[in-house]
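Sequence decides. Our protein:
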Amino acid sequence: MLKVAQTTLPGVMLITPRRFRDVRGFFSESWNRARMAEIGFDFDFVQDNHSLSHEEGTVRGLHFQSPPHTQTKLVRCGRGALFDVAVDVRQGSPTYGQWIGYELTAENGHQLLVPAGFLHGFVTREPKTEIIYKCTDYYAPECDGAVRFDDPDIGIDWGLGTQTPTLSEKDAEAPLLQDFESPFIFEGKA
């Protein structure tokens, strides 16, 4: 049976699909539109993304796509392990600037549903970690943006200790939350 858990951030959900195991390994439905619709998830995913991070300690994020091309994402780990994070940036939200994070591994099979209006990012816990995620809109470079992963006002504990993260130029130069004018509006619901 599919397990769905509401997190402390409204709209962000931790999903664990059932795995059928035998001597060969396992089989799991990572997405089934009909089953998800039965529990109230009616998403039209239009794009699948797959990335590989060579190094442990690689940080990607905190990313968003602004209107009119906002994206809800369903994120899972295909190989290795990562710590996946969502940050609420909906103006007027009672949880604005708050974050939540979960360990997603190839072994545990957890998936994180990150709604539009939330920043998304992750740090790899193992070398050669692969992340696979579905999106509800196509990539639109003109709507692509980021906020600093290590913003002290957000205060995410990435679990890096003294390790220096591997970052893209875009992520290293991203603005702080206080300098970010969010294009997302809280509408009284998740």
User: Anything to note?
Assistant: The mean pLDDT is 93. The chain is about 5% helix and 40% strand.
